[in-house]
């Protein structure tokens, strides 16, 4: 009987509920929102040398207190022992600071220092790094529930024996790169950043040493940010994207997804050259046909500065700045939001 009475009252309650808004499922009690307050902060600069400019930029990096720094290649520019460069860095930033290396053309083939030796005295400090440190590697930061995958590549520069690494379409290194980007997207890591010593787009002195095919691939895969050194200037492109009207990148409006300082994630790729790490400052070529690509620049003939790029990412936002070393005034900043 008890069971039948129970069933009857449940049925009655159900019938009463039909059509009564009051019986609709009540909202769950207020839960504190689990906003992801985590962030990752890093700096990136190449082309340092071992003189006062390098020290001034290292002082600024110390002041900014990032989680890690990306060296974008070209370290000592001399045949002083590699250890001297490493001692300069660790003297400023400490022995435990992750000062992460990527070869530039001055040390990739041992011409002015040997990248292998730089990598011995400034070894990888980031857990979970995959690939060949200082040459072709990636790392997720933080390691648990990453906010950003940083992928470092070495196209367009000679290694031992004078040969460039093969990043042509379909090559092993191309596939490695493609997989690093795809798997970051599949793992829903919010941001992808690629670093390479050589730029493709430039209003300095070099042409597309990084290679058009590889650069187009990065754009097509909507890498959020590409960081380069090599040119001893600062230059930042607009947000570039391929589309039906822009199948391959060209310096025209159809290839630019957005042109201001406030960008939407997933619309395209911004290329930033941070080559003012201390060595010297070279001029901007205002007559360069790629000028329409660019949104901001600094060189010896226009607001010269030494300094570093500073990047902060959260789950919803990437903020990128150029921060000058003390004594310089040029700054630049833009953001990408999800
Ligand atoms: Fe350089």
Word description of this protein:
- Helix content is 21%, strand content 24%.
- By secondary structure, the protein is an alpha/beta fold.
- The protein has one domain: Purple Acid Phosphatase, chain A, domain 2 (4-Layer Sandwich), CATH 3.60.21.
- The strands form three sheets. The protein has an eight-stranded mixed beta sheet, with helices on one face.
- The N terminus is likely disordered.
- Bound molecules: fe (ii) ion.
- Fe (ii) ion binds next to loops.
Helix percentage range: 10-25%
Ligand species: fe (ii) ion
User: Could you give me the name of the CATH homologous superfamily?
Assistant: Metallo-dependent phosphatases
**What is the alpha-carbon Rg in Å?**
25 Å
CATH class membership: Alpha Beta
The side-by-side strand order for the widest beta sheet comes to 4-5-6-7-8-13-9-14
Beta strand count? 17
Q: Structural class given helices, strands, pairing?
A: alpha/beta
Major beta sheet, specifics? 8 strands, mixed
Low-confidence stretches: 1-26
Q: In the CATH classification, which architecture applies? A: 4-Layer Sandwich
Q: How much beta, percentage-wise? A: 15-25%
Tell me, briefly, the overall form: globular
| Overall pLDDT | 92
Distance between the termini: 60 Å
- Tally of domains: 1
Taken in chain order, the helices and strands follow as: HEHEHEHEEEHEHEEEEEEEEEE
